[in-house]
Amino acid sequence: MTSLPTVRTAKKRFPRLAVTALAIGLMTGTALVAPPAAITAHAASPASLPSFADLVEKVTPAVVTITAAHKVTTPQVPQELQEMMRHFGLPDEALPGGRGGNGRPRIESALGSGFVIDPSGYIVTNRHVIEGADEVKVHFQDQTDDVPAKIVGQDERSDLALLKVEPKKPLQALAFGDSDKMRPGDWVIAVGNPFGLGGTVTAGIVSARGRDIDAANLNDFLQIDASINKGNSGGPTFNANGEVIGINTAIFSPTGGSVGIGFAIPSNVAKPVIEKLKATGHVQRGYLGVTLQAVTPEIADSLGLKEPKGAIINAVSPKSPAEKGGLKQGDVVQSINGKSIDNQRDLARNVAGIDPGKTVDLGVLRGGKAVTVSVKLGEAPSGDKDNGPGGSTSPDGKGDNASVAGLKLGKLDDRTRERMGLDGDAQGVVIVDPGKDELGLRPGDIIASVNNESVKAPADVNSQVEKAKKDGRKSVLLLVRRGDQQMFLPLPVTPKG
């Protein structure tokens, strides 16, 4: 078995000057590889290969580069410490923030991609590209100056955002295609801003459909092998007709660069979210108030089910729509409004797609008997992600849910504390999924510290893991709490296969 690399969002965070330097370095430092002298009889002739030049010429004017500026204040170093550092010969650049940066704000920029969907100036991108930005600007390929953009709305659950610019003339816009028609093996073309190299075109195929790369995200991603890298986030993936069938969002890579495994939000998932953002600036989602568990073959056998399908309820939140509707722990939800449910993710996605206030009929197996339970959905609370541990999602160790060293981690918020029966002041990071773990970790275990440093968010765990890697260590020491017990466990910084 092989180890699982980290899933990373495909945005790049660095100043524009640094991008220019990187671009020059790449262009001057890479040797060109000569083509083979002869083509074997088994290879396709050049005339048989498709050309996407006409398509690319048609769509690229509507693909843009997005710069999101963030104000960051450097730490204030006491005057005594500054004098001591200078006494030992350390230059001002060694102080936090560098020369002149002590305690003063500086600007950091995140670069991403986007595309125009309306001639009046509406632009789609990923939420993680513009998250927390103080200023957003858009660069069009046929213009010299960047154009300021307003954030119309953003949705953390789908990782989508909608921007608006005020153009002097109608813009060229792109049309969405039907992502449900895309099959593994179909051609796709990605356009975006990898590493700040705007207007980059790559081609490949759909590698797979329905990929689940993040427990906190409802998207069933398209997997593509067209190269996407940091900076491609929010850019479009086209079908062979030039229609947008996906929005590039993440890559699966041990290094942070493309290894041919990229993920795009399907257009059919994105369209209703974008429409709601355009209309109201936010997205309302239905809410049950349950924690769900997969129906494994063993569970299915114990319940007398022919197939391991459906979602078993392992907890019902107090005073939630589920409790008011009569759902119980141990119920196996097999359908919603007559539509069969494959797994817990399928149920969560269907519930989230229904407006709050509407009543749904759930087909439930309870005590070996099939019953129908009607539940009036509530509205998902702010920060709620999957009727369980909530928080924003980011597959690079940042955010409230993340994958770190093979573990899926979640922030320990008030809802999670209540569900797990923890004290209101309990601190730590909850393990959502231990993955291929050999330490005996379980979902619901709490990581209280890493290398004797207290942790409060997945990003804290990720920081300690990355520090250990830089120090050449093979593992970090976790203090794990389970109920009234606690134990120290060594977690490998590189997950084992």
TrEMBL record:
NCBIfam families: degP_htrA_DO (TIGR02037). Belongs to the peptidase S1C family. GO terms for biological process: proteolysis. Residues 376-404 are annotated as: Disordered. One of its GO terms (molecular function) is serine-type endopeptidase activity. One of its GO terms (cellular component) is periplasmic space. It is found in: Periplasm. Residues 285-343 form the PDZ domain. Transmembrane segments: none annotated. The keyword Nucleotide-binding does not apply. Its EC number is 3.4.21.107. It is an enzyme of class 3 (hydrolase). Pfam families: PDZ_2, Trypsin_2. This is Probable periplasmic serine endoprotease DegP-like. It catalyses: Acts on substrates that are at least partially unfolded. The cleavage site P1 residue is normally between a pair of hydrophobic residues, such as Val-|-Val. Residues 1-33 form the signal peptide. The active site is at 128 (charge relay system), 159 (charge relay system), 233 (charge relay system). Keywords: Hydrolase, Periplasm, Protease, Repeat, Serine protease, Signal, Stress response. Substrate binds at residues 128, 159, 231-233.
